[in-house]
Design a protein that fits this description.
14 helices
């Protein structure tokens, strides 16, 4: 398993490096932000998703070079690893970018209004799951429907506002000129749409989050071409604070137990002590199973009423 993690992380790291370099951004700067926000989870728990996003990045590079056939081929490979990559299809439609920017305020206000209205798409998803004509689509709808709706939280609302602010900030400050940069902006807007409309299904917009963090870090670096040193200092201070919170908060959660190293290699060599990694993983699996059973029981109680 550790060999698999190493191979996946190596491939993802190479794709990440190629993508960031193609965007003419600092690899160290972008990776520092990416590491704080999503690296551990993406490399250790979402293997198929991380590989799919790597192929998505390679596909965007080919699109930027007007190599449409190879861009499409790489995009289909990404879908082969994780079908949820299909939701990134709109970010390839860069020709509509200027029209979107022209109406960005009405669009964002409408999305915020929808989010605050509390309108639920949960029942609509259930209806779609029952009446979808394509088996693949029906199964996906049924899967998300079976997970049940999630309530709003202060954290998710704050994250929605951060994404809205970043979209407006980059549209005003960054020099968005290339096709790839437009795709990065569209990925932020896509995440906002998923958050606002499908707020009951974080499993959807969180999948977009794993890529949009890279997009935001690259665009943040792009703003350095146009802002003054004081502006940059304030910007970096805010990003540092947010990134540290994003890194520390999940690690304090019980869900992070399996992500800590299973043992120190040096300690194992000299003492044959393998550490408590396996026990922590088993404890986490037990907690997850108990939580899932409680959730299923809660849903059954709701249905019985």
């Amino acid at each position: 398993m550790q060999a698999l993690y190493l191979i996946v992380a190596l491939f993802n790291g190479i794709a990440f490096y190629i993508f960031v370099r193609h965007c003419r951004a600092s690899v160290i700067f972008v990776f520092a932000i990416y590491f704080c926000w999503v690296y551990l989870l993406a490399q250790m728990a979402l293997i198929r998703q991380s590989i799919a996003l790597s192929f998505l990045m390679l596909s965007l590079i080919r699109l930027d070079k007007s190599k449409h056939s190879s861009a499409l081929a790489l995009f289909f490979i990404a879908i082969g690893f994780q079908s949820s990559v299909l939701m990134f299809l709109p970010i390839f439609l860069t020709k509509v970018y200027k029209k979107i920017i022209a109406f960005e305020i009405p669009i964002l206000l409408a999305l915020v209004a929808f989010y605050l209205s509390g309108i639920s798409v949960f029942d609509m998803l259930g209806f779609a799951a029952e009446h979808a004509h394509f088996r693949f689509v029906a199964e996906k709808f049924q899967h998300y429907f079976s997970l049940g709706p999630s309530p709003k939280s202060i954290g998710t609302t704050i994250y929605l506002l951060i994404n809205i602010f970043s979209f407006l900030y980059f549209s005003k400050i960054a020099n968005i000129s290339s096709r790839l940069e437009k795709s990065l902006m569209l990925s932020i807007l896509l995440t906002i749409i998923l958050e606002a409309v499908f707020w009951q299904f974080p499993v959807l917009w969180v999948r977009a989050h794993y890529f949009v963090v890279i997009a935001q870090a690259i665009l943040l670096y792009k703003t350095w071409e146009t802002i003054r040193p004081l502006h940059r200092a304030v910007q970096l201070a805010a990003i540092f604070a947010l990134s540290i919170v994003a890194l520390v908060k999940p690690l304090l959660n019980e869900a992070a137990l399996p992500y800590f190293p299973y043992q120190s290699n040096m300690r194992f060599i000299y003492t044959n002590d393998q550490g408590d990694g396996r026990k922590r993983l088993e404890d986490y699996n037990l907690m997850a199973s108990e939580r899932e059973c409680a959730l299923v029981k809660c849903r059954l109680d709701i249905l019985s009423k």
